[in-house]
Amino acid sequence: MCLLARRLALGLGLAALFLIAACGAEPPAPPPGGGPALWRVEGKGIDGWLFGTIHVLPSNVQWQTAPIRDAVAQADRLILESAEIQDQARTLAIFEKMGRSPALPPLDARVPGEDKAALDQIISKGGADAKTLSGYESWAAAMLLSAAAQQALHVSQDNGVEPALIAAFRDAGKPIGGLETVERQFRAFDTLPEAAQQRLLVDTVHEAQDMRMLYDRILKAWIKGDIATLSREDQLSEEPDPVVEQAVLVDRNRDWVKSVEALKGHPFIAVGAGHLAGKDNLIELLQARGYKVTRVQ
Predict the structure, then answer these.
(1) How far is the C-alpha of 145 from the C-alpha of 125, rounded, in Å?
(2) In sequence order, what are the beta bridge partners of 50?
(3) Residue among 103, 129, 112 nearest 120 (CA)
(4) Which pLDDT does position 76 carry in this prediction?
(5) What distance in Å separates the CA atoms of residue 11 and residue 278, rounded to the nearest whole number?
(6) pTM for this one?
């Protein structure tokens, strides 16, 4: 699955911190009797749920189906990728600390000559500044560039799944935890070799040109719980960099299994749906460790 797809809807969603909320077209609705993918997870002291989220959404998407509401009501805690996303100021501060470095080359020097015009167009249309972006390491610049390109999508993190879940569990007085820290999330990118970071930057430039169609496909598949389509997105995009795949998905999924093994009771675990599809996904890793994972929606 293309990395842009994960950042938009399936994986980290960290670029969503910089999006501006806006109103878009009429959003899709869940099909009768269906909805976003939800699993029951049982074993090793857990009887809980695993939910694949989308981090940025247009307004008024009706994704909270009866099975999801029932699971939220029965759960004794919410487990996100990172509980620290509740503090956006802190998350942004960590991003700034880890994403900036002195004496970096200009951003347009980090992409091939044939991509410079597309890079300039994304920067201009997104209201960004090339000089400012050049102060960021290539992975961080790619995230900010993706955020700039997403302006035209009329989506917002505020409309995403996580804020609604956080509000529901807070109102019920239930604790909210995380599988990892925000620093760990950023470190997956920050420790990439520069060549992989620049590949990420170039891929972002390429994929931004078709972002509207890509996001629409992802949103329609997600609202129907169509994990197979989400998993096939890699066939519709550029070949992912295996170094990035390993760091951003596989290694984190393996770390998350260890975090899940420390849980007891009835957790509602909500992670980007991209972590639940494709090779070395979280569901397969949990099953390999002896958990029973059953699709319930």
Answers:
(1) 11
(2) 39, 269
(3) 129
(4) 98
(5) 12
(6) 0.89
